[in-house]
Amino acid sequence: LDLLNQKEYTPEDFRSVRTIFNVGPTEQLVAMQKQMPYTIQVTAYGMTEMGGSVVMSDRSDDISGRSESSGKALPGNEVQIRHPDTREVLGPHQQGEIAARGVGVFSGYHNDATKTEESFDSEGWFFSGDLGSIDEHGRVSFLGRLKDMLKVGGENVASVEIEGFLATHPKIKLSAVVGLEDEKYGEVPVAFVELKPGETATEEDIKDFCVGEIASFKIPKHIRFLQEWPMGATKILKYELKERIEKEIKTNTN
């Protein structure tokens, strides 16, 4: 992404690259593929507990199959979508919790029998805590972490959906959305944004970009700009961002 965002970049720079592996929101993957017309971009779904990836798209898939989904289960693995509460198996295009089992899935958490029991059922299915769906062709779509779902005025809103839309802004390099408690709506989205090198934008610029393009309740109530992110080994630590905005709002209120 950093390479593609360089002002000197041209598609010719990637002409010799045949395949590239990326993960990210659909809108971002589509935009990146357009910037690499000579390169086939593939993506995947997985986590540490799944040995890295249990789902991956294929070079032979069309651009929709390689951008709007993570692909199909890899050989030796199975994926289902389960109801988050009842764990009932759901049908094509229904949203629920992604469950997996197979050669890529681990057997349990070290020295934590309770967490292991909570995460597996009696048939060996591991429940990921991720929201997703499967189409009639077996292609899996990752829709975000269940714990990252916001409840805005009674409406369920996936953080990754807002992040995906913000990725289409020509000046935004990266974004992360968290929920903030709100007296009127229960919870509202807050977006932390990193701009591309050399770009400038205001909070109102970003909000105006959203108006008329996404539902009003999905438009971030607050925009905060960052250049450095709180990171774990590979992921943004959203709980730190959440604590940061909560502390800021509390301080300003007092």
Report on the structure:
The chain is of the alpha+beta class. It folds into two domains: 11-145, Roll (Luciferase, domain 3); 153-253, GMP Synthetase, Chain A, domain 3. It has helices spanning 26-35, 63-67, 113-119, 159-166, 203-210, 238-253; strands spanning 19-21, 40-42, 44-45, 55-56, 72-73, 77-82, 96-102, 126-134, 140-145, 149-152, 155-158, 172-182, 186-195, 222-225. The strands form five sheets. It has a four-stranded antiparallel beta sheet with strand order 6-7-8-9. A three-stranded antiparallel beta sheet has the order 3-4-5, with no helix packed on it. Strands 12-13-14 form a three-stranded mixed beta sheet, with helices on both faces. α1 links the parallel β1 and β2.
CATH topology of the largest domain: Luciferase, domain 3
Poorly predicted residue ranges = none
Query: Please, how many domains?
Result: 2
Order of helices and strands: EHEEEHEEEHEEEEHEEHEH
How many distinct beta strands? 14
Helix content: 10-25%
Q: Which CATH class of the largest domain is shown?
A: Mainly Beta
Q: Compute the gyration radius: what is it?
A: 19 Å
How much strand content do the residues show? 25-35%
If helices are DSSP runs of H or I spanning 4 or more residues, what is the number of helices? 6
- From the N-terminal CA to the C-terminal CA, the straight-line distance is 40 Å
CATH architecture of the largest domain: Roll
Tell me about the largest β-sheet. Answer: 4 strands, antiparallel
CATH superfamily of the largest domain: Luciferase, Domain 3
The strands making up the biggest β-sheet line up spatially as: 6-7-8-9
- Which structural class fits the helix and strand makeup? alpha+beta
What is the 3D form?
A: globular
The overall pLDDT average reads: 92
